[in-house]
Structures are given as C-alpha cells and as structure tokens.
Design goal:
It is a single chain. By secondary structure, the protein is mostly helical. It has 10 helices and 2 strands. Strands 1-2 form a two-stranded antiparallel ribbon. A hairpin with a 3-residue loop joins strand 1 and strand 2.
Length: 202
C-alpha cells in the first residue's frame, strides 16, 4: 500500500546502469520488459521523471522507434503542466533535459519517428526548457535569500521548493543540480536547435 509508481522508473534506470557496468544482457532485457509495461500502461500520465531518466539510458543501447516515441510523449504531453507550474519543482527540469538528450540522440543517429511530425512540438519544448531553467533559480538559495533564515550557512547555495512552506530535502537538491548539470552539458546544442530564439516567448 506504500508503493509509488516512481519505483518502476527508478528500478529500470538502475537496470540500465547495471547493464552499462556489466554488459550482461539479462539486465538490459529486464529493463526492456519494464519499458514494455510503461508503454502498455501509458506511464506518460504520471509525469514521471524516472521514466525520462530510464529512457535516456535505455536508448543509448536500444534504437526502438516505440521507445523514442514514448520518451518524447512523456515530455510533450506534460508540457502544459511543466510550462505553467508557478512554483519551482525539482524534477521537471531534469525530466526535460533527459528528454532533450533522447531527442538529440535521435537526430544524431538519423532516427525519425512519426511522432516528430504528428505531435512533438520542438519550439514549445525548447521554450519550456528555457523557462524552467530561468524559473528554477527562484528556488536557489542566494545569499540574499539565505540571510533571512535561522542558519544561513547551512542552506547557502542549496535549492528550496516553496509551496505552502519553504523546504529543503535530499531529493530537491540533487534533482535541481542534475537538471542544471544536463543544461550546462547540452547548452551549445540547445542554442544550435534554436532555444534562444524562443526565450522572449517564454
């Protein structure tokens, strides 16, 4: 009764990473079986960042058009929610950047899926990435924010999420850092794809 849907994506991500370390096909096959379940059960509905991370890992090793379509849908069909989220949210940015790596992998490998022409909106996707990259900084503990807290040095340069209250957890910080790390590593490609052309619209 305490199980969440996120465990499925976490486990699949771990299986892919294990395969990368061992090259043992049983781990890859297990990950592929899990993704078949994700597709049949339409996991897109969960806005699951772990699904994005696992698909980013799996598509490094498996070029299945259905996997690419599913991965792109996982972002595209949730873009309205991600774009319009008024608070910082620690997993959305990392979800977007993982999906960008998947998209870029498709382009580099010359893989084309029908969803690119019938559903995926690259401009909106890039605009959403830029908006989240900018908006997530509202949750960064600059010195000017931290100085109002009881123990500023303990929270300086971390990330908060502010909904009903301000909170810092061991999940929010690494997901924020992970998102910005991928943004940094892929920034030149994002610019090449035209992200900055859409920033004023964001």
């Amino acid at each position: 009764q305490f199980r969440t849907v996120y465990y499925d994506g976490e486990a699949t991500f771990a299986l892919c990473r294990l395969y990368s370390l061992t090259s043992d096909e049983k781990w890859l096959n297990a990950a592929k079986s899990a993704v078949e379940h994700f597709i049949s059960a339409d996991y897109v509905q969960y806005k699951d960042h772990w699904v994005a991370y696992s698909m980013n890992e799996l598509t490094k090793y498996v070029d299945d058009e259905r996997y690419y379509t599913f991965a792109l849908r996982n972002a595209q069909e949730n873009l309205d929610t991600i774009y319009n989220r008024d608070t910082t949210y620690h997993t959305y940015f990392e979800l977007l950047m993982s999906t960008f790596e998947i998209y870029d992998r498709m382009i580099e490998r010359g893989i084309h899926v029908d969803y690119l022409d019938n559903g995926f909106d690259l401009e909106y996707f890039l605009r959403t990435i830029y908006k989240r990259a900018d908006h997530m900084l509202c949750g960064y503990f600059y010195p000017e924010y931290a100085m109002y807290m009881a123990n500023p040095n303990s929270i300086l340069d971390t990330f908060m999420e502010h909904n009903e209250q301000i909170g810092i957890t061991d999940q929010r910080v690494p997901h924020n850092v992970g998102g910005y790390y991928l943004y940094y590593m892929n920034y030149d490609k994002l610019v090449d794809y035209g992200m900055l052309e859409y920033r004023d619209k964001a």
